[in-house]
Amino acid sequence: MHYPPHPPRPTLRQTTITLALCSALLLTLVSAEWHPLIDADERIARTTHRWAVEDHGLTHIFRILTDWVWDPLTLRLVCAAAMAWLVWRRSAWWTALWLAATCALGTLFQQTLKALVDRPRPVWPDPVDSAHYAAFPSGHAMTATVVCGLLLWLLHDHGAGRAAWRTAMALAVISVAGVGLTRVWLGVHWPSDVLGGWLLGALVVAVAVGAYERWRV
Nearest to residue 20, comparing CAs of 208, 207, 216, 213? Predict the structure, then answer.
């Protein structure tokens, strides 16, 4: 019996172009305050905020996760630990510098977009949490995507075993999805802010990996 061939996997360049187009489209819709997007954001945010006010226990857990476990500073410290490992165990100075530069440029990119778009955060009469700076994109979501994406790629590039790879992938998916959920649940971001953080974070990873592979060749 002949089975149909598997469809070819998208190349890194194709993935980067797709992420760039999707990010640009969402950025345009948010900047233009496209009514269907704004309406969907508000409906989802009102629902999740009502749940957050009613469920004090889960809200408290989400605050701990977003303020300590998945906080951008915590994730950057994880990156710093990975850099130390690269230098100490692999003598990979250039890879460590590439990791540091990508995280720094990703943060600069994120803050620049926040200032340019200047989107207001949700405002509630009974807030369960607070946050600073503009809303789009979500810094927590973007930082988690960048850090987890880079570390996953490094594990793959250094030939991590199957068990380690699966564990890291599970932790990365939980972290990236979880931090987005907590930001919307706590009422400090619109859903499209989180989506923007995911897309832009993935774009930063794709561009950084492409640049690294070209430099290595």
Answer: 207
